[in-house]
Amino acid sequence: MFLAKIHVLLKPTVNDPQGLTIARALGRLGFDAVDAVRAGKYFEVQIQRSDEATAEQDVKAMCEKLLSNPVIETFTYELELV
Amino acid sequence: MFLAKIHVLLKPTVNDPQGLTIARALGRLGFDAVDAVRAGKYFEVQIQRSDEATAEQDVKAMCEKLLSNPVIETFTYELELV
């Protein structure tokens, strides 16, 4: 079985209002050293596969079809044998 | 300057309706090998500090005060010099 750790972030050129709001809130809380924040999503998906190539194919397909919006987001993933 | 990569996940004992919904949706899309999904948040925070200890102190404090809800969530982070 594999555990896929998937990160979905807005593309660098896309405005990130959630990140901007968090950065401002951190500033108001006294975290003066905070420069910028990007907010994204994180998924841990357990995949019942015995070979890594098939699991990786699954992960790529599910990111493209459901977990990310390829127009404005990018995804990265790591696969771990568990 | 440091880049903090922060993961916030619901504690394992806390019900994760978002993850359950995603797992069901993936099943309906034909991803039969998907066993379970946990959904969380991911933040990249740029911190203007020169020493790692202070940056780490900042990250812990901001996770506890704003980025996570310690009652139901846990956080992990990595610090990278950039």
Describe the protein:
Two copies of one chain form a homodimer. Chain A is α+β, with helices and mostly antiparallel strands. Chain A has a single domain (2-81), classed as Phosphoribosylformylglycinamidine synthase subunit PurS (Mth169, Chain: A), CATH 3.30.1280.10. In chain A, 34% of the residues lie in helices and 39% in strands. Chain A is built from two helices and three strands; from the N terminus they run βαβαβ. Chain A has helices at 17-28, 52-67; strands at residues 2-10, 34-47, 73-81. Chain A has a three-stranded antiparallel beta sheet with strand order 2-1-3. The longest helix of chain A is centred in the C-terminal third of the chain and has 16 residues, at 52-67. Chain A is elongated and about 50 Å long. Chain A binds chain B through residues 1, 7-9, 19, 22, 25-26, 29, 31, 33-49, 54-55, 58, 61-62, 65-67, and chain B through 1, 7-9, 19, 22, 25-26, 29, 31, 33-49, 54-55, 58, 61-62, 65-67. Strand 2 of chain A pairs antiparallel with strand 2 (34-47) of chain B.
